[in-house]
What we know:
3 strands, mainly alpha
Amino acid sequence: MLAAMPQNPEPTLSPHYYLDNFHRLCSSVEDQYGDVLVQEELELLAEFRALSLCSRCLYVRLISRTGPWFRESKLQYAEIDALTSALDELLNKGFVREAVELSITEAAALFTFAELSAAFAFEVDAKKRSTKKQLIEQLQSADPTGEEILSIVASIDSQRIITPQNSDFVDLLQLLFFGNRHQSLTEFVLDDMGVLQYFPYEVDRNHRQFSNRDAVNE
Length: 218
């Protein structure tokens, strides 16, 4: 009789696994490339660490998603129990920016066909907007300003539309950590879940890929 092979249990990720991974990324880069980062970048790391837990979680959630814009009303994370105040803090500290205008394309990415049809009903011919593509084409022909578009979609959703800032710096951190532009924070999740296993090795300032900022810029 064949004995059943023991199965490895599914790995359980902590509620703040993504924040832990981002802290690991920041600390590793600061240890290895602190002399390569400029003062403003070092200050940005310090400012991020000084944020409240919920704000740090929300920021990492946002920079890990495909944007650039997000509707506040659609942000729902079980582990962030003070989302509104977290967003307020990110706005006040400059880690997030609120929209003051939107293009038709940006609005179309945020709202459904039904929502846009209702909001812009006075702008378009109902008989010629059977698809979202047709609706977008008609709206583009009407050529409303970015401020007008934002004002109109506010009738659909009066909550804020926001975008995370400092994405270039986050890209720099990932480049310094991984040594390429192909890997990202997703690699940490794959490692946490056991999908990929990386050999643990130490990298110090004497054995790093980029010796100075010129090498990074190249």
